[in-house]
Structure formats: structure tokens, C-alpha cells
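re the bet — no i am not wrong, look at it urself. input seq straight from the record:
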Amino acid sequence: MKIHNRKFDKNHFSEAYGIQCGEVLPADIKSKIPTGFTWCIVPKNSSSTLHKHFEFEMFIVYRGKGKIRSGSDTLLIEELDCIYLDEFQEHEIINTGDQDMVILSVWGRTLKKTLKQKSKDQIVITSTPPTPNGDLHLGHLSGPYLAADIYRRIALMQGFDVVHYTGTDTYQNYVLKKALETDNTPLEVANYYSGEIKKTLETYHIHTDLFQEPKKVRNYELYLKEVFLYLYKEGHIIEKEVDTTYSGQNNTYLFESLISGKCPHCQSGCSGNLCENCGMHNDCAEIIDKQSTIDTAPVFTKKTKRFYFSFQKVMPQLLTYFKQVQDDNIKQFIEQVLENNLQDYPISHESDWGISVPIEKCEQQVISSWFEMGVGHLVSLLDQDKELKNSVDAVTRLKEAYQGKCFVQMFGFDNSIFNVFLFPGIFTGLGLPIAKGLKMNKFLLLEGQKFSTSRGHAIWGKEIAQKVNVDILRYYLSWINPADYENNFTKRHFNEFINTAIDQTIKKHILAVDKTLEKFKYKTPVTTRWTDAQEAYYKKIEKEVNKYLPYYNLEQLSLHKIAVYIFEFTTIMNEFRSKAILFEADTHQDFLQTQVALELMSLRTLSLLSYPIMPGFSEALWNKLCPEEGIEDNGFNDLIAFIPSNINLQNLSSCLNFITYQLEDETVLS
């Protein structure tokens, strides 16, 4: 191990509190420990300024003599004396000797709450693969994709090894329907829109460590068939003869998007196999007032054999798992499904688009895309992990790939039946642990109505991003995130939000601080004397940070509450800034120094806490304030800390380039 030696060198010193101060430890070591060490030189016949700071401090007199004054107390000090001062204890050091007094200052803070954590397991976040039959609109983005990226950034800053997996569900029959409508092949449709979806996710800084496209994953079909056969042999997949729906025009098998009607559970309008209103699945023959969506012919039924995933053998484990679920909406959904006597789920359909069922004489059927998605991310792991043992079958290899991984699933309400019942059932049948985290969102409406591609009632992600910076969009979508209930995107509220949460808070504050920094030649000042209001502000910042920390953890993760916190935090900062004018006069320079130091400290905290939601703006602000360390490297290690002295902060407001917008032409919001 390396031995570090930092020589006493006056070239490392700079003025602070009216005396010369020099850090003992280099920055790379200082960042690893909670205590600071500073050499202080008080010249002969001089003293420090009267000051206080938020750290506790211990002085060890190395050379010279003098006295220290705090309030009404004055204490004589000499070589080897050790003096302790509490946080915010105002003091002044006076040299009464005939030589420079040299003091070693040891300072630090009482331990505070932190979000920094450690885990040996890798967190694997999955977000429901979007269907490549169209690009992503704001309704899509506001759900699992933004939530997955925000939690990924939080987990990284907490010190976890974390990845985000998503992709496209190429074999959804919505792709087949789009191909029929556009006179393209399903593969052409899937490839084109998969590319557009990837571009949109990248535009919104939604990072994916694995973007799965089944046609492009090595051995995807082979592994999926092996999983299917394993579950079939273990009795989790069963064959049934059931009523099946067909079009009277050309005997086309109708399922999922190819058939519609009324839900047999809630009587709302629904598609085949799933109702978006109540979240329950159906056998298409159960649908009330059935009609084909690809022609006008009547629908008829006949008996055919199909494969189903049976919940019977895995239900005891699922019931135990459900007891651990904390989300109230998911618990309510579980109760609703169980009250309706959970039915086996159909996992095969007659189609020429998809992966064929690997059972003799059943090759005309394809595996349901929803069953496929249940294990798709795991199958892709086998393609990613180059160190897996050369096991004899896919299931054994899956168990190897799963080791040391903790899965967190982000999904919309309309996919609840799959993420809460089908996928855990499949995992249990394979002998794999079930996902430890389930995060569901409800629907985002647009001007009070559901987003609709067919009716042109949508705001497309890439289109609005040409006029409004994505950090603003991420902030607003987090604010109206429909985690607990349906929410509504309106043009009026969006414009009000930009004015209130961006222009009148963040922009206003940073521009004002930038202007005041001119008095300090754009160098960071240090705290000197504190007013009671400044001390109260510091303590309030600590309190506010602690109040909202739980919403950054997976158990209580709330995009809306984090967004509200950012707004409340910047509002508090602006209220504090309004008092800075009291110190603009030169006679109050020491109080102004403390004021600006506190404001820069607050901006540092803001950059850390807003980074998961507004990564571009936050990282630009952080790089101005803390140029020697990356924002993810610091993470949530030290949420409240002052900026080191003499950092060049010229053009601090350049970070505002990441929260700009141009809404002169508002047709994009019509």
C-alpha cells in the first residue's frame, strides 16, 4: 500500500477568515474521510476574523501563543493546547506572541443521513418492452421508461451496481396489424419502429444497458423454446381444448389487437386477451359483442387446442410472495384478481408471426409474446454474459445467469396481470427468485382523454423535444407522474409549470447568484460571520433534505414527490436569496460571503437531488461547482457540503442552457 506524504508548503495556502490556511490532505484522500485537517497561520500582531461555520472544530496549537475568544469567553492558548468548538460556535483567534502562530485545525461534521448504500447484488431494472408498431409519445415516456431511468440514476448514486434492460416486443400482433394496414412485412415494421423507439429513449436520456430485439439476440429462439418445453414437462404449461375466435371472412384467427368488444369482467371496451380498464385478462371467446378489427365479417368460434400457463402448482409460492408487496395499488389489484378466481393464461396462438410452439403437431401455433417477455430479459442475459459455464440446457444456464442479481420491474397498469401474476409464475416454475421490486404506473391522459395514435390525439416524444429541452419535459412528466392515479397533461398547466418551476425559481435564482459572484471576481467565497437567519437557513436545508430522502429509495420511490421537492427546495433558496440585498453594501462583506457560500452549497445539493430527473442541467451545474469529481462518483455520499474556496465560477448560468424552450409555435401541444 502507498504511503502518502504532504509536505508543509506555504504555496498551498490561501486566505480564509483573515488568516492563511492550507489543506493537509490532497483532494483524493480528503474525499474518503469525514474529517478535514487544515494548517492555519495567524501572523504576528494579527487575528482571524470573527466567524463561525457549520462544522465542529478542534484546534491544536503547534507553535506560538495567543488567545481565542468566543462570545463572552476568552481563553489563553499556547503550544500543544487543544481547543474544541461546537458547530456554529462563533470565535476569533488572536496572536499575542512575537512570532507567527501555527495551528492544526481538525474539523468535521456530525454524521447525517445519507442515501449511499452498498450491495453485493446487481440490480436489474426491467421496463416493459414497447411494441414496435409506432414511436413513443409522452404517455409512454411518463410511465415505466422514465421511472426506470430515474431509479437507475438514483441506484448508481447510492453505490449500487445497476443496469436497465428493455427492448421491443417484436412478435406482438399489434406489429402484424400495423403491417396489414401499411402493406409492409411485420419484420419491416418492427425494425423501423424499434429504431425510432431507441432514438426517442436516447433523446430523453433514458439509458438502456440492454435494448433487446428478439430477432437480433443470438440463440433467443432456441433458449425460449427450451424454457417452454421445461415448463411443459413440469406441468406448468398445459394443453386445453377451448372455444377460439375466427373471422367469418377468411377464417383468420382473432386474438389480442385483431378482436375487440366488451370486457367480461367490467363491461368496458377491451381488446382480445386483456382489458386496459380493469387489468384482467380474458379468453377472446369470453368477450361480449365480439367484432373483428381487420374486417367487417361476423366473428365465430370453434373448438381448438391451445396451450395455457397454469397457476395451480405455483400459487402457494405466489401467495407468499404477495404478502411482501408494499404498493397499495398493486395489493388492491392482487385482491381483485384473486376474488375473480385467477384463470390460466393463454400462451399460444395460431399465427405465422412469432416463435413456433416446440411441440410436435403444434408448429402452426406461436408462443404468446407476453410469455416470451416474461423470460426474454433472462434469455438475453445468456447472450450478454460471456463467463457462464457451458451448461447442458437453457434453464440451468438461466439459474447461473440469475445469481447475484436482484430484479426490479417497472410497468404500466395495463400490464399488471403479466408483471404481477404471469412473470412471477414463470419464474417460480423455473425455480428462480421472483422480482424483489414492482413499480406500477397508471395512465397519463392528454387534455382529459387517453392518448390515441389512431385519432391523432398524442404528443410525440421527439417532436416536442425539438422545442422544449428534455430536462424540462422529464421534470414535468415526473411532476404529473401517474403512479397512484390517472393524471392529466394539459397545455395550460405545462406552460404554467415552465413559468413557475423553471423561470421564477431555478433560472431566477442562478442568474441572481451569478450576478453577485461578480463581487468576488467569480471565485467561491468562504463563510465568515453568520447571521441568525443564515444559521437557521442551513439547518432548514438539512431538515428539508432529510424529509424527502425516503422517496429516493425503492420502497417509497415517487417521481412526483421528488419533483415537488425540487420545486420546494428552489423556492426556499429564492426566499433566502431575497435577503442577500441586505448585505450588498461593502460594510456587510463578511455576511455577504457567508450568504453566497450558503447559496452555492444549496446549488450543489440541488444538483445532486435533481440529477436523476434533470441529468443534463444537474451535471452541468455540478461540473461548474465541483470540477474535480463526477456527479455520479460523488453520488449521495455528502448531500450538504460547501464549495471549496477559489473555484472559478465564471458563467455559472451556462447550465441554464439545459432548461431552455421555444414555444412560439404551439401546434405541437394542440
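see?? The chain has a mean pLDDT of 89. told u. also Residues 138 and 461 are 6 Å apart (CA to CA). so pay up
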